[in-house]
Each structure stands twice: as C-alpha cells, then as structure tokens.
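INFO  loader      accepted 1 record
INFO  loader      residues=289
INFO  predictor   begin
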Amino acid sequence: MTDRALVVVRAGALTTVQDRGRPGYAHLGVPRSGALDPPAAALVNRLVGNAPGAAVLETTLTGCALRPRSTVTVAVAGAPCPVRVGGRAAAWGAPVVVPAGEVLEVGAAERGVRAYVGVGGGIAVEPVLGSRSADLLSGLGPAPLADGAVLPLGRPSAPHARVDVAPQPGPPADLVLRVTLGPRDDWFTPGAVRDLTARTFRVSSASNRIGLRTEGPALERARPGELPSEGMVLGAVQVPPNGRPVVFLADHPTTGGYPVIAVVRAADLPAAGQALPGTPVRFVAVRRR
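INFO  predictor   done
INFO  writer      dumping tokens
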C-alpha cells in the first residue's frame, strides 16, 4: 500500500479527475473532455508546483473531503468556497499543507459551480488515450469519485508557489458569450438570428459537463427536418427541436444532427463552466475571422 495517495472521505455531488483533456480523437468519436475551467485548473497546478498538464480534481457545487496518507501540499481555486484542514479554516487560492491523516474539506461553492483541487505530484490514475480526464459522455477515464475510493498521487517535482492569495476572475453574474455566426445560421429565420444576439437567455438547471442548456426565447427554424450527422466542435451552439440553444462544453458529442447556429469563442467557455442555473446569458456576435 503506497503512502502517496488520497482517500475520499466525501465524494460530493460530482467530483471527477480532470487534466487538459484528450484532443485529436474526434474521428474516433472521443470528445476532448478535460477541466471545464482550464485557467482555474492550471492555477492550482501552478500553486502546488505541478506541470500544467497534471491531473486535478473538479468538484461540482458541494465540494468534497479527502484524507492524504502522507503530508501533501494542496491548492483550491475556481468557485470560491470554504476550505478546512483538520477542522480548521485554511486558505482558498493559495498553497496549503495537509498533514498525513488530516481531512481536507472543500466546502460548498459560495459562488460559481466548480472548484479545482490541485495536489503536489498530481492525481496519478492510469491515463487513457494520453489523458487522465473523466469523460462523462463516453465513459473513458476514471469514474467519478465515490466515498472510500483511493487516488494514487505522483511525486512532487517542484516547490509550491510562495503566494498569499492568487488573483483569479470570479464566477459570472452575467454570462456574455462572444459567438461567430454559422455554419448553419441559414437554417433559422432572420428573426431567430436576431433573437440569438438581441434577447437574454438564462442558464438551465439541466446543464452539465456536456453542454450549457438555456431557457428563454425559442429560435424559429426556416427549414424543416434535420441534418445528416456532422462534426461538432467545442463551443458549438446547437439548437434542438425545442428552439433553446445549447452550448457544447468539454464532454460534448463529436457529431450531431441539430443545426449549429453559432460557435462560442474558446476564451469565454471557462466562464460558462462556472455559471449557476438562472444566470443571465447574452450571445454577442463578432466578425468571422
């Protein structure tokens, strides 16, 4: 039994292992996956001295609790939340030493949706197709955490950062998504295309790692029927038969038959991964490059 491991005391609503994902396999039907808020995942790795691609934990809303078998350095960032070590308050957004046997408690998100937990040495579960990310659509990678699970850790390769608190953007109160219209905007009426960028939508509680679903005006089709399945990209704004746009996130399907009215700029997707249900959403059209 190795001492370089974490024991899951409380798994939380949904906690998964994530890294930068597995790009390059869409032709096999495998999504990219990876952290929904890559800057937050990169930050916790930087704070604990890991390489940028080291695997971290991504929690959803309710946090998690972990007990290391040996002393480790951890950092929690992303959605602001209380952090406790051995029952005592600890820093969020900064390196924290957790002694062997003590419990690290990552509390419920106070704002936003997803917190990230970096551990010195990284989460060392077996990679699949070059990534340790859990993909909820295809089932590749490690299963979501369960109480009592044991996660192996790698060996630290560098000292942790010397900071008090690292600055980072807060979760969005209003989600503004810049989009490039197309490739199937001609499948919608001119009024529907105007509505996409002129009306306000809201984040639906049905959102998940596959896609951010919206509530609001239904976008009217100009053409009946459906497309033959075609390739889907990260950030695609697909419109199903109910007319409510869905923004594809990390675990999205690689093909689909509903028309894509626009594509969100990659730089805006981390905020989408942190947007709570009910958050206002506005799509802003930008010029095609």
